[in-house]
Amino acid sequence: MKYDREYSSIKNVRQTLCKDVANKKLTGVCAGIAKYYDFPRLAVRIVAIAVLIMLPVATGVAYVVASMLLPNSKYY
Fold first, then answer.
1. pTM (2 decimals)?
2. In angstroms, how far is CA 22 from the centroid of its own chain?
3. Which residues cross the membrane (predicted)?
4. Sequence-separated contacts (24+) of 20-29 with Cβ below 8 Å
5. Closest by CA position to 20, among listed 29, 12, 7
6. pLDDT per residue over 18-44, tens digit each?
């Protein structure tokens, strides 16, 4: 799936990994990852839940660390 992501007329804007606070469910980490890699948000959330079931401690720690370290999105 490709979405038109034309937010600016400037073509050389660097895209950085950040939390997506506009489409968040908990903290916006999965939505931010989906936006950065251009994946559907639902697919990233399903994969995150599946990995959380298989590796709960590692995934939980990684999610908490990512939610603390990733900056909030400046653009909604």
1. 0.77
2. 11
3. 42-66
4. 20/73, 21/72, 21/73, 21/76, 22/73, 22/76, 26/67, 27/63, 27/67, 28/67, 28/72, 28/73, 29/63, 29/66, 29/67, 29/70
5. 29
6. 999 898 999 999 999 999 999 999 999
